[in-house]
Amino acid sequence: MSQKSEETVNDEMKPEYDFSGGVRGKYYEAYTQSSNVVILDPDVAEIFRDSASVNEALRLLAKIAKSVTV
Fold first, then answer.
1. Where do the H-state alpha helices sit in the chain?
2. Residue 19 within a domain
3. Which of 29, 33, 56, 70 has minimal CB crowding within 10 Å?
């Protein structure tokens, strides 16, 4: 057996893991409705280090945008 084949065999889950009672996709719908992942570019991530700072900036921007009339 080649080394790659041995790695594949060794990566398999142990037989004692029992997923027979699991429900596939149980939380899928709730997850898609409540999660919104945004990937920041590195230069932006340096400025906004956490979600709180991003949310604060976006709320301020939204407030400014609403107050500006065209």
1. 3-10, 28-34, 42-47, 51-67
2. no
3. 70
Q: What is the pLDDT of residue 34?
A: 77
To which residue do tokens 């921007």 refer?
A: 61
Residue 4 lies in a domain: no
Q: How far apart are the first and last CA of the chain?
A: 71
- Is 27 part of any domain? no
**Total of domains in the chain:** 1
Burial letters 25-35, b for 16+ CB under 10 A, else e: eeeeeeeeeee
Answer yes or no: is 18 within a domain: no
Cα separation, 42 vs 47, in Å, equals 9
Tell me which residue range forms the domain holding 43. 39-69
pLDDT of 36 reads: 80
pTM reported for the whole predicted model: 0.49
